[in-house]
């Protein structure tokens, strides 16, 4: 029977070099989507167009192709062997690039004549999983998109399922997985590129609970790992609803990782609704070295392009320890190639911690209560944070002079390093930070904000109705603000914000401190809001009062009109 997908996207994703923080994604097209061959066999030509590396996966042994992999355009000859059975057969060849998967359906007529052997009975599909044996049989069976498999009991499994094409209804039962990768296993083996209860998901998963542990310590190589409690990777169109993970995930391989409590990596167009994580998400790099560009999130490690994350909650601890460039968030660590993403009614309750050590290169860390970092957003792209809350403590525990921090109660970073002013829109609507945000480096240049730590000038910030109740603190230099730490487009708007009496904005003697804005350039419109709390600079504490608040709203910069700001909660 066909060699079922070990993992539909892993072969292409393994081509991505671990030192590339922002992989270049390209489209992939085929000149035809189906080949029909006679029983005696055939030879067909398929034109492939792609500007990136690509690879062929899931090819049956009765089909051969002239090229198994390549880079750029190619003409591929597909040869179908003679069918000697009395039944027709078909298979699907997948062509994968780092961002796209295209399929080529191959169908062949049945053989005819007195000497043709009888057709063997078709395997019985598992549609109800009542045991670990059922799950093992299910994970190697064939399903069509739209079919549904149900989980009828709590089960304990020994290994992940492979590629989930169909829908999976957990019926609020629990799958327990305790899985450890072999220490000598290289990450270039596609079996270990994606790890989760499901290695990859293309269908809908709902009402599923997962528990146990995943420990990943394979040899470092040139690939990228995606690790999640429910799924290592989710393909375009996949969805997760009412899923809950208490799986503890620990990875120690010195290479790129995308690790999420629910999903490690989501392609564009994946949606998550009412999902929660209680498990630990942890990356440990004990060796001395430079960047390891890993993305960690309580719900999703790496979100690609587009998607909606709504009513999701993280209560687990997210930790990156050792050398590297962390992009970490209580909900999502990293958003790449942003087009349109929404975070609605999401809550982080868990601590998000970077414990730096053994670092040999200079870089920033990006840590946020909801999201950490945005890489290469598309011009005109936008993201909405609607009614999101951070209750967890955000900590950058660093001491090395090479390390610097950008941290925020809702987001650590916004925008892209471009000179174009306001070409991306980042909207924060009715968001609240209750957590403590701290960066302990006394030599690093830290940008810390109660809502947003740092914004590029390319990002137009639309902040309305947001509240900070937490302590924001930098032990060294930089900029700290109760709402925004540092920078933004001059077209940005800040309205109806509140910095309450619970707030404390603190920093070293050389740090730029503002009860609302640490360091912000001239804005085109007046800001409106209420401020209270205190500012502590170099150990000297100043309470915000009705008499002095106007002088404390902005730490530095050219913010001209604060006539709409008043004192009080």
What does this molecule look like?
With 569 residues, the chain is mostly beta strands. Helix content is 3%, strand content 51%. The protein has three helices and 61 strands. The chain has a 37-stranded mixed beta sheet that branches. Strands 15-18-22-27-31-35-40-45-50-55 form a ten-stranded parallel beta sheet, with no helix packed on it. Helix 2 links the parallel strand 10 (128-129) and strand 11 (148-151). The longest helix is centred in the first third of the chain and has 7 residues, at 132-138. The protein is elongated and about 100 Å long. Mean pLDDT is 87; it is low at 1-25.
Fold topology:
Layout (H helix, E strand, L loop, with lengths): L9 H4 L14 E3 L3 E4 L4 E9 L2 E5 L5 E3 L3 E3 L2 E7 L8 E8 L4 E8 L19 E2 L2 H7 L9 E4 L3 E3 L3 E4 L2 E14 L13 E2 L2 E4 L2 E13 L7 E5 L2 E4 L4 E3 L2 E8 L4 E5 L2 E4 L3 E4 L2 E2 L3 E5 L9 E3 L2 E11 L2 E2 L3 E5 L4 E3 L2 E13 L2 E2 L3 E4 L7 E6 L2 E5 L6 E5 L2 E2 L3 E4 L5 E6 L2 E4 L9 E6 L2 E2 L3 E3 L5 E5 L2 E4 L3 E6 L2 E2 L2 E4 L2 E5 L2 E3 L6 E3 L1 E3 L4 E4 L4 E3 L2 E4 L7 E4 L2 E4 L2 E4 L5 H4 L1 E4 L6 E4 L2
Parallel strand pairs: 2-9, 10-11, 11-14, 12-14, 13-16, 14-17, 15-18, 16-19, 17-20, 17-21, 18-22, 19-23, 20-24, 21-25, 21-26, 22-27, 23-28, 24-28, 25-29, 26-30, 27-31, 28-32, 29-33, 30-34, 31-35, 32-36, 32-37, 33-38, 34-39, 35-40, 37-42, 38-43, 39-44, 40-45, 41-46, 42-47, 43-48, 44-49, 45-50, 46-51, ...
Antiparallel strand pairs: 1-3, 3-7, 4-6, 4-8, 5-7, 8-9, 58-59
């Amino acid at each position: 029977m066909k060699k079922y997908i070990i993992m539909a996207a892993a072969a292409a994703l393994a081509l991505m070099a671990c030192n590339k923080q922002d992989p270049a994604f390209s489209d992939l097209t085929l000149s035809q989507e189906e080949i029909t061959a006679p029983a005696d066999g055939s030879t067909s030509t398929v034109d492939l167009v792609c500007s990136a590396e690509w690879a062929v996966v899931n090819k049956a042994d009765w089909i051969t192709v002239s090229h198994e992999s390549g880079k750029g355009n190619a003409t591929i000859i597909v040869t179908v062997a003679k069918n000697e059975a009395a039944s027709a057969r078909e298979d699907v060849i997948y062509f994968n690039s780092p961002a796209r998967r295209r399929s080529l359906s191959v169908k062949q007529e049945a053989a005819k004549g007195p000497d043709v052997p009888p057709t063997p009975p078709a395997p019985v599909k598992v549609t109800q999983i009542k045991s670990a044996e059922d799950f093992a049989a299910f994970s190697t069976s064939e399903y069509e998109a739209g079919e549904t498999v149900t989980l009828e009991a709590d089960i304990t499994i020994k290994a992940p399922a492979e590629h989930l094409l169909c829908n999976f209804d957990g019926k609020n039962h629990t799958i327990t997985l305790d899985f450890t990768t072999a220490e000598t296993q290289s990450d270039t083996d596609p079996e270990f590129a994606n790890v989760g209860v499901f290695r990859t998901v293309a269908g809908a998963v709902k009402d599923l609970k997962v528990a146990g542990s995943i420990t990943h310590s394979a040899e470092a190589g040139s690939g990228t790992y995606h690790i999640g409690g429910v799924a290592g990777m989710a393909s375009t169109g996949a969805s997760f609803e009412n899923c809950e993970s208490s799986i503890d995930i620990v990875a120690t391989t010195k290479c790129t990782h995308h690790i999420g409590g629910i999903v490690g990596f989501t392609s564009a167009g994946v949606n998550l609704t009412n999902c929660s994580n209680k498990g630990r998400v942890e990356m440990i790099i004990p060796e001395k070295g430079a960047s390891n560009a890993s993305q960690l999130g309580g719900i999703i490690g790496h979100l690609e392009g587009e998607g909606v994350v709504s009513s999701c909650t993280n209560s687990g601890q997210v930790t990156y320890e050792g050398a590297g460039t962390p992009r970490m968030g209580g909900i999502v660590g990293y958003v790449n190639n942003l087009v349109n993403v929404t975070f609605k009614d999401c809550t982080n309750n868990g601590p998000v911690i970077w414990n730096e050590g053994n670092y040999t290169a200079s870089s920033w860390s990006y840590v946020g209560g909801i999201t950490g970092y945005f890489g290469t957003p598309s011009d005109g792209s936008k993201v909405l944070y609607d009614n999101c809350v951070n209750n967890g403590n955000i900590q950058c525990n660093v001491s090395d002079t090479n390390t610097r921090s950008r941290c925020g109660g809702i987001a650590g970073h916004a925008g892209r390093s471009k000179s174009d002013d306001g070409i991306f829109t980042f909207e924060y609507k009715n968001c609240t930070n209750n957590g403590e945000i701290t960066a302990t480096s006394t030599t690093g240049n830290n940008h810390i904000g109660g809502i947003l730590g740092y914004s590029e000038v390319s990002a137009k910030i639309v902040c309305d109705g947001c509240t900070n109740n937490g302590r924001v603190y930098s032990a060294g230099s930089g900029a700290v603000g109760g709402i925004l730490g540092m920078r933004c487009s001059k077209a940005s708007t800040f309205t109806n914000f509140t910095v309450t009496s619970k707030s404390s904005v603190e920093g070293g003697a050389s740090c730029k401190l503002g009860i609302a804005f640490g360091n912000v350039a001239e804005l085109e419109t007046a800001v409106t809001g209420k401020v209270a709390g205190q500012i502590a600079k170099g150990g000297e504490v100043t309470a915000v009062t009705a008499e002095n608040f106007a002088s404390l709203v902005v730490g530095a910069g050219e913010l001209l009109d604060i006539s709409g700001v008043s004192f009080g909660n």
